[in-house]
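Bug #77: duplicate submission created two jobs. Keeping one. Sequence:
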Amino acid sequence: MAEFVLIVLLLSLVTYAVLGGADFGAGMIEPFVGGQASVDVALAPVWEANHVWLVLAVVLMFVGFPEFYALASTHLHLPLLGVLLGIIARGTAFTFRHYDPEPGALEVWYTWVFRAASVLTPLCLGLSLAATAAGRFPDDPQAGFYAIFVAPWNTAFGWATGVFVCALFAFEGAALFSAEHALQGLPLPYANLARVTHVLSLVCGAGVFFTAYVQRLTWFSELLHSAWALGALAMATLLIPVVAHAFDRGRPWLLRFAMGAQVGCVLLGFVAGQFPVLMRRPAGDLTYQAAAAPDATLRALIWALVVGLALILPALLYLIRVYKQRAA
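Kept job's structure:
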């Protein structure tokens, strides 16, 4: 049961990284794609519903792996606070600039808050994810403020991962815009912007591996010996020419699937590099088996997942269909 909950948790994170990542990326590249009118059209299908997957992931961690949730929410309080502030500020700014009948001088502030928050949340997500692999969570509960709340995520590996997540989301945003503005039988637009952000994400990804190697992280050495991790990263690499082909041939749905699969493979590779560990600590790594809730709790959680997903998935698919038909 713990393995099933862990798989659903990973799938929810991948879904959020694909759908939510494209929306955050759209905010990052907004200055290069014609302003907020283009962004509004591209984000219309699911931008308000994307956080369902983040909420699902939080609930799965809280109920399914409570020890991991307690440690992460304590030691990663600051970057997780940055994630929440970015989500709130971004959604608020987007709504106000879209519906404020007389924005006046505030329109500029709405736009800059939207763009800055689109960077803040992915950056803090990357810092939080990297901290689980860096292994700098303190053992002494009486350690100082810096050791408890800052040191676990304030590493070169953490910042490199945060920048990589931003670059990856920016590429997703460029791919989203290209797919949304496709013309029948023609190469997809915004190809140059997509190439730049794609190359940038590859360079930043190499930076993550380089910092992990320099800091001699256990995560890096185990990643090199994990067939799942290497296979996922190899698949992400093989999808690069598929993405280029989709741009050149003007195939928006192929681009969407290839981009989503590539992001999913990257996240899977990162997680597989430390499986079955959820959090690395000097006193001993916390595995998912050790952090799992009792069987009775997991059983009830699985039933709740089955019922909840049966209600959520059809509604989301209908939402996308309605918006796409309206846009067409």
